[in-house]
Write the structure tokens for this entry.
Amino acid sequence: MKRTIWTLATLTALSCVSLFGADAKAGQAGYDKSCKGCHGAAGIPSLAMAKAMSVPDLTSAAVLGKSDADLVKAVKEGKGKMKAVTTLAGSPEDVIAYVRTFKK
Ligand code: HEC
């Protein structure tokens, strides 16, 4: 019984993807390589990209208001016109932690 409770507690903790310990600095290299082309150096897409693909502004409340889990999921599984980024150097959690540093 004790073991079941422990297992449940661990699973619950693991299922809440948390950016605790994510390293924004480490995420920068991955962002610059895999995301910058569409999203711009600081999360604001070029006008051309924004128009061509409706790339959202990553510094907007609409994006930053979402949970880390949602944003990590967009990278891992893709979202709308954005395909899953499978060639990312480093962890998606680190990259999202870096994206969070763009906030105005
Ligand atoms: C080919 C261009 C392209 C690349 C490369 C790209 N994105 Fe995106 N991204 C988009 C587009 C387009 C959307 C809007 C998707 C939609 O909602 O239709 C988007 C949406 C997002 C969102 C918002 C998700 C949401 O729930 O609102 C985040 C966060 C994001 N991208 C992060 C990243 C990160 C981090 C990388 C690199 C690992 C990356 N993107 C690479 C085009 C791109």
